[in-house]
Specification:
With 298 residues, this protein is mainly alpha-helical. The chain contains 16 helices and no strands. The chain has helices at residues 2-20, 28-35, 60-75, 80-90, 100-110, 132-137, 142-154, 160-177, 182-190, 194-205, 211-218, 224-237, 242-251, 256-271, 278-283, 287-297. The protein is globular.
Length: 298
């Protein structure tokens, strides 16, 4: 299980790095014209949201996930207060993009709100997709995993549906690491979640349909009610092909980084490290640091 859990973390980071170049481009014709098929790590365009980044780096989602991984390594597990301090330190001199959720959460921290009460009202899925490091450290402790996943998400995205989405994905990861297929795990984990059941069902019913059209229909945007069905579509459609899932995700446009991190961790947990293109891992600038942190956690 540990090898699959390592792959889960690596695939989530690789998905974010792959999405960096074309992230938040909604016009798929622009992606085609400026990037072609995005099957390698690319530098963002000079006028993009991530114009301070280089190929192989992460979006603000991946950067925050790396902070979470580092915090877990330092503490030997999840500590909300330590993560909150580390998260705030990240943004002291941060030259990357700060989204609405980040700005609102930083404002709440500046007003001395507790980490459990500092979260923004954002409905974006981005807060829920950082959980791969938690699934690594708590791969044998289901209840601890779910509790930590919800707490880390609520710290920045304190919307009930976003928090419930983190709980869903944590449970899916636990089932997949235990050997269930992603599709079966999604069906099991969504059965008693009324707020998410239709999103999961819509995603599963879209299996096999053209990905660009499907994600455009669900919505390319950051909000969970658009992003989560797209994640389910990608996971279930490309259940045995992580590379194609992540490439097609980027080619579908919009918030491909958040969708990709979720897809990457689920399929990474299912398929293992060999499913991740070696060049993606080799070209990730934080690759050695991630490996070191995973080794420290054990």
């Amino acid at each position: 299980m540990k090898k699959k859990a390592e792959a889960m973390v690596l695939a989530s980071f690789a998905a974010d790095s792959l999405a960096l170049g074309a992230h938040w481009i909604y016009d798929t014709a622009v992606i085609d014209n400026e990037f072609g098929r995005v099957d390698r790590l690319r530098k963002p365009a000079p006028d993009s949201f991530h114009d301070t980044k280089e190929a192989g780096e992460f979006t603000h989602y991946g950067d925050q996930t790396l902070v979470l991984l580092s915090s877990i390594a330092d503490c030997g597990g999840f500590d909300l207060d330590h993560f909150a301090r580390s998260w705030q330190n990240l943004f002291q001199d941060y030259t990357g993009y700060r989204d609405h959720a980040t700005r609102e959460t930083l404002k709440n921290f500046a007003e001395n709100k507790d980490p459990s009460a500092a979260g923004s009202s954002s409905t974006d899925l981005g807060g829920a997709v950082r959980i791969a490091p938690l699934a690594f450290v708590y791969r044998e402790k289901r209840n601890d995993l779910r509790s930590a996943a919800k707490a880390q998400t609520a710290m920045t995205h304190n919307d009930p549906v976003v928090v419930e989405s983190a709980d869903l994905m944590a449970d899916v990861l636990w089932h997949v690491l235990k050997g269930e297929s992603p599709t079966a795990a999604l069906q099991t984990a969504s059965a008693d979640r009324t707020a998410l059941r239709k999103m999961v069902a819509d995603g599963l019913q879209s299996v096999g349909r053209p990905t660009r059209d499907t994600i455009k229909k669900f919505g390319q945007m950051c909000e969970t009610d658009a992003s989560l069905p797209g994640v389910i579509h990608l996971v279930a459609t490309y259940e045995t092909d992580l590379k194609t899932a992540l490439v097609e995700n980027v080619m579908a446009g919009g918030d491909s980084a958040a969708r990709g991190m979720a897809v990457g961790m689920i399929l990474g947990a299912h398929l293992g490290r060999d499913a991740i293109p070696a060049e993606w891992l080799n070209e990730m600038k934080a690759g050695n640091r991630i490996a070191d942190l995973l080794g420290r956690i054990g």
